[in-house]
Amino acid sequence: MDKFTFKKNKLQERLEREATEGLEIAICTFYNIENSIDLTEDQINHLDEISNSEEDGYIRMAYTNIINNWDHNQEN
């Protein structure tokens, strides 16, 4: 008989991706920009402060993903 196994990693990846996409839409709407890479350094610093007080792990991870993506694009 086959045993049920749950691939937790796939679900975690999906939840992280959805949280990041949703947060990015909210941020872009608030700041009236097309993409989160268009944020200013002050705006990124503010988002970093917010992320430090965020209790939800996926939302905190979403902030981190957006901030890291911004940092990466500033280097290029």
Map the helices and strands.
Blueprint: H1 8-31, H2 41-53, H3 57-75
Describe the protein in words.
This protein has one domain. It is an all-alpha fold. Helices cover 74% and strands 0% of the residues. The protein has helices at residues 8-31, 41-53, 57-75. The termini are far apart. The longest helix is centred in the first third of the chain and has 24 residues, at 8-31. Helix 1 crosses helix 3 (57-75) and helix 2 packs antiparallel against helix 3.
Please provide a brief summary of the model:
With 76 residues, the chain is an all-alpha fold. The protein has helices at 8-31, 41-53, 57-75. It has one domain.
Can you tell me the overall shape?
A: elongated
- Return residue spans where pLDDT drops below 50 for at least 5 consecutive residues: none
| Range of helix content | over 70%
Arithmetic mean of pLDDT: 92
Tally of extended strands?
A: 0
Structure annotation, total helices: 3
Rg over CA atoms: 15 Å
Largest sheet geometry: none
Question: What is the percentage of strand-forming residues?
Answer: under 5%
What letter string, H or E per element, gives the SSE order?
HHH
Terminal CA distance reads 53 Å
Seen as an oligomer or otherwise, the chain set is single chain
| Coarse structural class | mainly alpha
How many structural domains?
1
